[in-house]
Amino acid sequence: GGIIIPDTAKEKPQRGKIVAVGQGRVAEDGKVTPLSVKAGDEILYGKYSGTELSLDGKDYLIMRESDIYAVLN
Fold first, then answer.
1. In terms of CB atoms within 10 Å, which end of the chain has fewer, N or C?
2. Rounded distance, CA 4 to CA 34, Å?
3. Model-level pTM?
């Protein structure tokens, strides 16, 4: 048998805009792999993804690239 998840229990993706990115992911060998997203990209991500941060009166969400579902532009 399968598991049926009702629409009311499904996580709805959130939409946001990337304002800044780091230099990339550091691999075990020390090499930096560049990110595939850039500042200005509009993205979809999980409702519970990332860590909330408030800075200079603005709210931000810090997340890993792997938490991004899709890039919209």
1. N
2. 38
3. 0.75
